[in-house]
Amino acid sequence: MNLSEVEFRQPSIEDSETCMEYINCLVDEGTHIAHLEKFTLEEEQEYLTYIQKMCEADRGVTLAAMYKGKIVGLCGIDREYMKKSAVDHIGLMHIGVSSNWRGSGLAKLLFENTLEASKSLGIEAVTLSCDSNNERALKFYEKLGFSRVASLKNYVKRDDNYSDLILLEMWLPKS
């Protein structure tokens, strides 16, 4: 694994199979993502079509970290609605990295590249949510500059166990 060999680009419909493999590995790991069931190829195609529409409409940016033709990470910053709204200045972020790339610096690079690509959207702040049990991710987000702003008690339920959903935000410097 060599970070210099990782390419950051918008995923396309042609990436459906590797995208499905990537997300299904996260589901299998039991990571702290919201998804509890594996995705089908058709569902991944729908997701990638949605990403493309968001990008074409200047409503969001999603980048895939590609290594040797495989997706090893995804990060997106999207506006909440497809049409102009009162919350257009806020970007909702999601990010994930394959287990064998965690701790390598890939997530930070993926975030930085996605944030840079989203500048044309005019976003003033980025928000994200994180399972309170995912302490490693929470520390990572805070290291990037995110601050905890709210907690939704018992919002997450896995195998009859509840945890809180932590909401974080980062206001971006004005250019």
TrEMBL record:
CDD domains reported for this sequence: NAT_SF
GO MF term list: acyltransferase activity, transferring groups other than amino-acyl groups
PROSITE patterns in alphabetical order: GNAT
Alphabetized InterPro entries for the sequence: Acyl_CoA_acyltransferase, GNAT_dom
Residue span(s) of domain N-acetyltransferase: 6-173
Official protein name in the record: GNAT family N-acetyltransferase
